[in-house]
Predict the structure of Cyclic nucleotide-binding domain-containing protein.
Amino acid sequence: MAIIGLGLLLFALLIGNMQNFLQALGRRRLEMSLRRRDVEQWMSHRRLPEGLRRRVREAERYSWAATRGVNEEILFENLPEDLQRDIRRHLFKFVKKVRIFALMDDPILDAICERIRQKTYIKESRVFSPGCLIDKIVFIVRGKMESIGEDKIRVPLSVGDVCGEELLTWCLEHSTVNRDGKQIRIPGQRLLSNRMVRCLTNVEAFSLRAADLQEVTSLFSRFLRNPRVQGAIRYESPYWRSLAATRIQVAWRYLKRRQSSHLSG
């Protein structure tokens, strides 16, 4: 009788857990269907062409699959600050794989992680285009991108890679430090991209906006101006490598012209 009673109790618990699971699954499907209905109504109201509608639907599907329909920002707001910090360090541990950030102290990394936001891109999306403003740094978590420079050289980007990292150096170089040690922005200047970065697959990433990066650099400008950090930024960056190669080519051509002019003279 005891064994039968225990078996019935375990069976009842199993049924209860299955019922809760099915109810949660039903709620999630209902939320997803309501979200899709709202998106369709919005696209119809704005009279988007079919090509744009198809891209919006694909982006919505991938974003829902990547986040499971959970708004992480709202979830984080209800947690204690120390727990938020530990969770962010776990989520953004890939940041230290980049040599630039491996040299940084924990307070700077914590300040950066607090401002990083989740971002999803669909296949063929352009993250940066030539001549357009660079307004963010993008850390790739899942998927593949490629960077195409002015010389048409293609640089593959995958999990753990970064694009738009030249924004960090630019923020430091186009600012001054007053007597109080605080950084002051020089107005009227913008960083424009000299390459195209596009997605080869659907990409899940984290982005750091220019305004947030400027705030971080103003708080930790003295450390970020360290020659080791600056060297790491330029060594790891496809942007700075491409710029260095271009300048070397220009200097080499100038030297060859001078040598030829001396020989002819």
